[in-house]
Amino acid sequence: MTTPIILPFSKHGIELDQIFVTGVRVQGTHGVYAREKESGQLFLADVVAHVSTQRAAATDSLAATVNYSDIADRTAEILGGDSADLLETVAEHVAEAILEMPGVECVDVVIHKPQAPLHVEFGDVMVKIRRDYRSAGLWSGKRIGSSAVPARDAYTGVLQSDDPLDQQPLQPVVAYLGLGGNVGDVDTTFREALWELHKIPGIAVRRSSSLFRTAPVGGPEQPDFLNAVVEVQTALAPRELLAACQGVEMLHGRERLVENGPRTIDIDILAYADLEAAADDLTIPHPRAAERAFVLAPWTTLAPDARIPGAGRVGDLAALVDSEGVALVAARWPQPEGATAQ
Predict the structure, then answer these.
(1) Torsions phi, psi for 180 (to 5 deg)
(2) 164-330 under CATH 3.30.70.560, yes or no
(3) Which tens digits make up the pLDDT trace of 46-73?
(4) Three-state DSSP class for 24?
(5) What CATH number has the domain spanning 10-142?
(6) pTM for the full model?
(7) If both were cysteines, with which of 152, 166, 253, 291 could 161 make a disulfide (CB 3.0 to 4.6 Å apart)?
(8) Whether the Cβ atoms of residue 181 and residue 248 lie closer than 8 Å to each other
């Protein structure tokens, strides 16, 4: 059996994996002519879901991936369901159904109508579409956290937003990111995440802090966290930087099922130049950065003279917070390849 070549789909600079379900065969009643709706005919569908499979591969857990049986079932329901005049409509409905499945970021759908009432001999009739959250109109409700970025004019490239969180800087600026995690091999996850961030256009990881271990505060009973802070230089707008961070989180199986619950990795924007801005999806500087010992302790080992806008100098703030439960793990924590050592 020949596997079709499907162009990759990248989310925030990360190329996703693909799950294929091809040749779903169902009798349907789609068509413009009355006889098509009355007697029905054969329809076939090929579906490719673009997902991250790394967490599933690491855990060997079906719950961590998209079940191809569910893809087939949802596709078959639509092929054999309510009648539509156009194949384009059928394809759109299949795409929307698959995009509603957790973990699916993009979908390619091909609908075949090999018994179409044409007046010449033919092999097949098909419609092929690609949809993601934006193109399917699902982005605002299905986006990962706040990773949606406003559109630019298709011809001028001008950003269609006056929000300072959407504005790219005139020159690259320094931003600080906080890393936390307590599921799996967190040290390795952090290192991989830094290199993945470093590869994204518009982000250069410059330095990393020492690595700390922190007892969990709030939430369910869970293992201790590892924490670090990294300095990046970025030409991205704050929301674009957030989107990149959340794309890397997604790659490593980050889930938001329980508030303050266990996680493979969490990447927060702590500060972005001297910006002070707040919205429902993003606040800069991070509203609790100046209060958290697990943020300030590593940040002090990296840039004690850095200032949190509206709060003060990192080193001074670190001296004011209770650091009980926060312990040094590695003073010289590894750097991503290509980054500048501390």
Answers:
(1) -150, 150
(2) yes
(3) 999 999 888 888 889 888 889 999 999 9
(4) strand
(5) 3.30.1130.10
(6) 0.57
(7) 166
(8) no
